[in-house]
Amino acid sequence: IVILVFSCKGSQKELLNLTQQDYMNRIEELNQSLKDAWSSDQKVKALKIVIQVKRMYLFLFLFFFPDNFSPESVNDTAKETCLNWFFKIASIRELIPRFYVEAAILKCNKFLSKMGISECLPRLTSMIRGIGDPLVAVYARAYLCRVGMEVAPQLKESLNKNFFDFLLTFKQIHGDTVQNQLIVQCVEIPLYLTLYSPAIDWILQCIAYRAPEVLLTEMMERCKKLGNNALLLNSVMSAFRAEFIAARSMDFIGMIKECDESGFPKHLLFRSLGLNLALADPPENDRLQILNEAWKVITKLKNPQDYINCAEVWVEYTCRHFKKREVNTVLADIIKHMTPDRAFEDAYPQLQSIIQKVITYIYDFSLLFSVEKFLPFLDMFQKENVRVEVCKCIMESFIKHQQESTKDPVILNALLHICKTMHDSVNALTLEDEKRMLAALINGFIKMVSFGRDFEQQLSFYVEARSMFCNLEPVLVQLIHSVNQLAMETRKVMKGNHSRKTAAFVRACVAFCFITIPSLSSIFTRLNLYLHSGQVALANQCLSQADAFFKAAVSLVPEVPKMISIDGKMRPSDAFLLEFLCNFFSTLLVVPDHPEQGVLFLVRGLLNVIQDYTWEDNSDDKVRIYTNVLHLLSAMTQETYIYHVDKVDSNDTLYGGDSKFLAEINKLCETVIAQILDHLKTLGKEETLKRQSQLALYLFNTILAHGDLRNNKLNQLSVNLWNLAQKHGFADTKTMVKTLEYIRRRSKQPEMSHFADLALRLPLQSRT
């Protein structure tokens, strides 16, 4: 329409899609073009540009009025052009095209006078009376209301006039002319009436926008005069504020009862009323009567789709204002209507919505699962993906709202069933993200289950959960952590009273972990859980079980692959293995030797595994691990270890500084150092000299911190390592200086005079 009015051609058609800023930029471009044309003596081109700019300014004025725009801002030429457009529109013979074209440029009246729009709106409203077809007329009124709200939202009288005029002509729908047309076109009256709804809804929404409550009363009275027409009543309830509708709920119910159901079904009216009551509360004394009146109509519906569309809305009202008895009654009625002929299969979205509403208002799960028909309602979700989504929704609500741990058997049985449904949906095609989400929900439930000091019942629950959720590794990991925590809690509660029954229970916890860990696929998860479970067994004085965990960890190290998947990407495993072994060494310090296995049997076994493990050619992790072994062996030579496990005698107590034990440690130290030195020799090539320097200094610092430098061999080794670190100029001078200063400070401490001799033997080499 706008293109027709302005008769735009060529480049001006392209301008229709530009923003205001784009127009301004275009004008600046034309300005520069005008200057260039004038300076190059192209007078005709310059004149054409002037004409084009003039048209663009007018176009810009029409569609981007400033806030302070007034008719006085427009020159006479523009006013004359604008008036000419309106004269041309007035000459259009056909009523409907003339109406729509004038309505489309209604805003242009601001060019002519301040009162132009307020004078035109009533005239255009009256013009619509000449449209004979009531359906065409109502959409014309809807368009005029739309334009009116855009250009003059304060002129409410015109909106009201359009609606009241429509009411006066509404009886045309039942006249012979319309009825005969419907017969010819084979259109039923209920279907025909639905065509009016969008237009009427829009008109009423414009009227109801920021309207006072008294206007609703006036609309209701006019609807009553028309015999409570269902179509109009539905639009009124859809347009006005929910608070206004809710306050008059019983009045609307009375009007709905008196409506003629042949043209517009009553259940749709009750649905519209229910939508309002979901947003605003009716008077408290009317709430039960409102529900009863609505459900009398809803429960009589024979069509399952009509029924569920209406019931879905009123479930929220029921949950919001009533207790479990009423909610149970409503759910039972829905099951009754939707079960025959498996009608529920066509109503999964509505049924899902009902579940969401129920758990939104009833988030006390002991109360929720006491609603007798809640679980039977869930049985209607036969389609797997829908059933799983519903289960996820329920579990999310439980995790969000459950504040305290629970042991309620009703809750546990119901949620175990729901979690089992989620777990059983996992197959080979399930995405990893979906698995993680399901595992997180199940773990959230497991964490909320507590039987207090009934530890045996708690363990039984974990055993049952393991059997139900064996396909989700994160759940098994959580169960292992939970059982380990249970074992530690048992130890705290018993406070040292280790009866046979308590010891047997702890061993049962340990056995649970030992059996479950091998089923996990992630090798580092298994390693860390073996270590953690072994620590728990050790803390509970289950020494043989702790040994079993640590042996299992040692035997698993050779299986560590060179590359592992981290967040979907393949990464080297060396750093993870190094971290694990360092943690393992810290634990081995307090693990007592088995009387039948020999001295330091776990340390020796681990060293053999490290020796046989195939390391990357360009990796120095093996040397770093050996260096950490030296830290461990040094700590083992102390008369009293720096930390202990309560009520567990470590090797410092078992051996009491025995010379044979210390000799074994010294032999191991010599073996480990020899391995390190062999590796340093392999780094003598030019491309590996920097690594050689770093590792030499690393071993030097280890000897400095943990070795007895009064030993001549060790003292000489440290000097050699110092020289090797500086030999090829790769040592950091600042680091070497600070290290030497540290040695000199240590030499001033009691019984550290040998550090002074060492410092004299450690030269600082210049790089020049």
UniProtKB/TrEMBL annotation:
Q: Where in the cell is it found?
A: Endosome
Q: Which GO terms describe its biological process?
A: endocytic recycling; protein transport
The yes or no answer to whether the keyword Protein transport is present is yes
Annotated Gene Ontology cellular component terms:
endosome
Q: Which InterPro entries match?
A: VPS35L (IPR029705)
Instruction: Keywords in alphabetical order, please.
Output: Endosome, Protein transport, Transport
Main localization of the protein?
other
**What family is this?**
Belongs to the VPS35L family.
Protein name, UniProt field: VPS35 endosomal protein-sorting factor-like
Organism per entry = Anser cygnoides
